What we know:
The complex is a heterodimer. By secondary structure, chain A is an all-beta fold. Chain A has no helices and eleven strands. Chain A has strands spanning 5-7, 10-13, 19-24, 31-37, 44-50, 53-56, 65-68, 75-79, 88-95, 103-104, 108-112. In chain A, strands 2, 4, 5, 6, 9, 10 and 11 form a seven-stranded mixed β-sheet that branches. In chain A, strands 1-3-8-7 form a four-stranded antiparallel β-sheet, with no helix packed on it. In chain A, β7 (65-68) and β8 (75-79) form a beta hairpin. Chain A starts with a strand and ends with a strand. The relative contact order of chain A is 0.34. The mean pLDDT of chain A is 94. By secondary structure, chain B is an all-beta fold. Chain B is 0% helix and 45% strand. In chain B, β6 and β7 form a beta hairpin. The radius of gyration of chain B is 13 Å and the shape is globular. The A-B interface holds A 4, 31, 33, 35, 40-45, 48, 55-56, 91, 93, 95, 98-107 and B 34, 36, 41-46, 49, 85, 87, 93-103.
Amino acid sequence: EAEVAQSPRYKITEKSQAVAFWCDPISGHATLYWYRQILGQGPELLVQFQDESVVDDSQLPKDRFSAERLKGVDSTLKIQPAELGDSAMYLCASSLAYNSPLHFGNGTRLTVT
Amino acid sequence: DAKTTQPPSMDCAEGRAANLPCNHSTISGNEYVYWYRQIHSQGPQYIIHGLKNNETNEMASLIITEDRKSSTLILPHATLRDTAVYYCIVSSHSGYALNFGKGTSLLVTP
């Protein structure tokens, strides 16, 4: 079964540094999501793409976070500068269409020291 | 989207049915009930969803009450590999950005 690929699996960075995460969705999936999951909590949506366009980024802290999906395929989420409170799991998901189930990758575990 | 209420944790013996409840008393007519689960250190996995009829697939059954204010996810023969956090989510198909709560942590014991 096709999977959503994410890298790196783990990332440790110092506060004030820049960090980036990459996601390759399942081929043909038009909708892509980035979620953040703090330990002990459920995932929270950061940004949603439909093809290369942002559909919802209302929960994205835009002063330090940015996301792009330039060709409507893979996507990058960047944090600059990282803060201690950004330590979390960052999950990418994709779906074939608006009303299709989400398929999640296994995430990037970020630790900011 | 409507809010959901789930018990924080449940236990189930291996081989027995696991019945996970979810209350969604403010659900509106166009909102679906979705269930996902998350095994430790993995991303969430889609299980099943429904509008008002009961649904069954190879993983589980979903029972939705007639008034749609609550539902139950049934794992008919729980195995140790079903130990996970189970999320009940209510959402319309508009935008489809799912809002996860804290879910129910299910522990299946030998």
